[in-house]
TrEMBL record:
The lineage of its organism: Bacteria, Pseudomonadati, Pseudomonadota, Alphaproteobacteria, Rhodobacterales. CDD domains: GH43-like. One of its GO terms (molecular function) is hydrolase activity. Gene3D superfamilies: Glycosyl hydrolase domain, family 43. This is Glycosyl hydrolase. The keyword Endoplasmic reticulum does not apply. It comes from the Bacteria.
Length: 313
């Protein structure tokens, strides 16, 4: 079984999920890019003008739509604005969101300046803008943040202008960031990619990226040097809505295994035939897969029933 665990009931375009436990309620909250999947017309307008959607679950199995995040727009940016790929973590008693943001809802990316913006919240509902991160220009997206063994914080993110590669920045406190440099190039050895995600499981640190043909896997002993292992979730699942490659994932570690939340285009059977123009091909839905480590390799199974989450280790 690999049926979707969540379908956005308004826009039908849930993508780029991130999942975090609400420390006050014990619930699991999913934040996601809420693409406008039913928007017609040419161009990229359907993935712009997107709010951040919220879904909530008591156990990680049954998810209910809970609206969208308010208050993320820069004052003066009237009308629809674009919000992509939220990264939400908790540290020092507050929640932090790192979000790709730009003004407007254009149908072309020409001249569009994409940034990663930092917000904080006491409760996952009310968010306060802190700053735009001082990263390279002009277009950086898809932040992921994890704590290093040294106690500092590192952010991995995509640089769209430099080969769709992964770069990093470092911070002592999640507020002040300094750019470091390239981590994974967009090259023949590591094809162009997006959506980096870093987690620790089975005694190793892992970095996964979305190569639009499955998720690339890298392993590290120190979060500094990364060794490529190959692809996971590059083969279609058994459910009719899980026949395309797994895309832009987030991982919740629960003891000796983990839940990997990813999205698919359910109308696409990418491995078998060209993408059809049916009017439904822009839809996206959220799935979950099970992760574990076996003989030093990351393994994944997408053909599983949704399973309860325990508090992240």
């Amino acid at each position: 079984m690999s049926a979707p665990i969540f379908i956005d009931p308004v826009q039908d375009g849930a993508a780029d999920p991130t999942v975090i436990r609400n420390e006050d309620t014990g619930e699991w909250w999913m934040f996601y890019t809420n693409r406008r999947a039913h928007l017609g017309g040419p161009g990229w307008g359907w993935i712009c003008g997107s709010p951040i959607g919220i879904a909530i679950s008591s156990d990680g199995v049954e998810w209910m739509y809970a609206g969208t995040v308010e208050g993320l727009d820069l004052p003066g940016d009237d009308g629809l604005n674009t919000h992509w790929a939220p990264e939400v973590i908790r540290a020092e008693g507050e929640y932090h969101m790192y979000l790709t943001y730009y003004a407007g809802a254009p149908d072309s990316f020409e001249g569009v300046y994409r940034t990663i913006t930092h917000f904080t919240s006491p409760d996952l509902r009310t968010w306060t803008r802190q700053s735009v991160l001082p990263l390279q220009e002009p277009n950086v997206i898809d932040a992921c943040v994890a704590r290093l063994p040294s106690g500092a914080w590192r952010m991995w993110y995509k640089d769209e202008e430099r080969g769709s590669s992964t770069w990093s920045a470092i911070s002592p406190d999640l507020y002040d960031w300094k750019m470091e440099g390239i981590v994974i190039p967009g090259s023949p050895d590591a094809p162009p990619h997006e959506g980096p995600n870093v987690f620790t499981l089975g005694g190793h640190h892992w970095l996964i990226t979305d190569e639009w043909r499955g998720l690339a896997v890298y392993r590290s002993a120190d979060m500094e040097r990364w060794e490529r292992q190959g692809l996971i979730l590059s083969e279609p699942g058994t459910d009719p809505m899980d026949r395309s490659f797994a895309r832009h994932a987030d991982v919740v570690v629960t003891g000796d295994q983990a839940a990997l939340f990813y999205f698919t285009h359910p109308e696409w059977d990418e491995a078998a035939k060209p993408i059809p123009e049916t009017g439904q091909e822009r839809r996206t839905v959220i799935h979950v897969a099970k992760l574990w480590v076996e003989d030093g390799h990351l393994r994944a199974d997408r053909d599983v029933a949704p399973f309860p989450l325990t508090e992240a280790a």
